[in-house]
C-alpha cells in the first residue's frame, strides 16, 4: 500500500466513530485566529483538517477557509456540519503531499493543527516546503506540534528517529525542541509568536492525555 493509502486507511478507521476529540476548536486555533486578525488575513488554508472542528471555527470567525484531509470519512462529516450553516468554507479530500488539486492558489495564512509532527524528518521537510509554496509572500504559517516537554509522549514507545516515537501502533509522533523549530523556520520565515500550551483530549487508546504543544505563528519572508 502507498504511504497516502496507509494514512487514509488509518485515519478513516479512527474517524469511524465521529468527532473523536469533540467539537470545540483547539486552543491553537484560537491563538491562530488572534494572530490572523492582527495581520488582516482573509483567506486561510487548513490542511489535515480532520472532521472540521478548527476549520468550522475559523469560518465562523469570518475567514475565507479552504480545508482538506486525506480521510474522506472526516471530510464527509465536516461538510455535513458546515452545510447547515452559510459560511465561506470549502472542503476537499486530498493529500498534504500532492496539493495539485488546489491549483495555483496561494493563501494569506495556513493553519495546521497537530499535523507536522506525524511524519518522519524527510516528510516533515516536504510538508513545510509545500506549505511555503501555498502561502503568499508575507503570509502567515500557524501550527501546533508536540513538544519534548510532553511527558506522556516524549520517550514513549520505539524511537524510530531522533525525538520521533511510536507509542501507539501506526502513529508516529515527533517531539520538537525550540532549537529545531528555529532551525526549521529560519530560512523562509520570521517568528511572530512561539509558546507552549496544553490541550486535553483522548489518545488513540481512548485515555485522556494532556498534550504539551508548541504554538507557532511565523511570517513568510
Ligand atoms: C491528529 S489529526 C488532526 C486533525 C485536525 N487537524 C484536528 O486538529 O482536529 C491528523 C489529521 O491529518 C490527516 N492526515 C494525515 N496524513 C495526511 C495526508 N497525507 N494528507 C492529508 N491529511 C492527512 C488525518 O486524516 C487527520 O485528520
From TrEMBL:
According to the entry, every stretch annotated as the Methyltransferase domain falls at 44-139
User: What is the protein name stated in its UniProt record?
Assistant: Class I SAM-dependent methyltransferase
What GO biological process terms are annotated to this protein in UniProt?
A: methylation
Q: What species does this protein belong to?
A: Ectobacillus ponti
> What InterPro entries is this protein classified in?
Methyltransf_25, SAM-dependent_MTases_sf
A Gene Ontology MF term for this entry? methyltransferase activity
Which keywords appear in this protein's UniProt record, sorted alphabetically? Methyltransferase, Transferase
Amino acid at each position: 500500500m502507498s504511504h497516502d493509502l496507509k494514512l487514509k486507511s488509518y485515519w478513516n478507521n479512527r474517524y469511524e466513530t465521529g468527532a473523536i476529540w469533540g467539537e470545540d476548536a483547539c486552543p491553537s486555533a484560537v491563538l491562530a485566529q488572534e494572530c490572523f486578525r492582527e495581520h488582516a488575513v482573509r483567506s486561510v488554508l487548513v490542511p489535515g483538517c480532520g472532521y472540521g472542528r478548527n476549520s468550522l471555527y475559523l469560518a465562523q470567525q469570518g475567514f475565507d477557509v479552504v480545508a482538506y484531509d486525506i480521510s474522506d470519512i472526516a471530510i464527509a462529516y465536516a461538510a455535513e456540519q458546515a452545510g447547515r450553516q452559510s459560511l465561506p468554507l470549502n472542503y476537499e479530500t486530498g493529500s498534504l503531499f500532492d496539493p495539485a488539486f488546489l491549483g495555483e492558489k496561494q493563501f494569506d495564512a495556513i493553519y495546521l493543527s497537530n499535523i507536522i509532527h506525524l511524519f518522519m524528518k524527510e516528510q516533515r521537510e516536504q510538508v513545510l516546503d509545500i506549505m511555503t509554496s501555498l502561502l503568499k509572500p508575507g503570509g502567515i504559517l500557524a501550527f501546533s506540534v508536540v513538544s519534548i516537554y510532553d511527558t506522556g509522549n516524549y520517550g514513549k514507545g520505539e524511537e524510530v528517529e531522533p525525538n520521533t516515537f511510536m507509542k501507539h501502533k501506526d502513529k508516529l509522533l515527533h517531539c520538537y525542541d525550540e532549537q529545531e523549530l528555529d532551525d526549521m523556520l529560519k530560512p523562509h520565515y520570521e517568528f511572530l509568536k512561539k509558546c507552549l500550551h496544553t490541550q486535553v483530549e483522548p489518545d488513540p487508546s481512548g485515555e485522556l492525555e494532556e498534550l504539551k504543544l508548541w504554538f507557532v505563528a511565523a511570517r513568510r519572508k
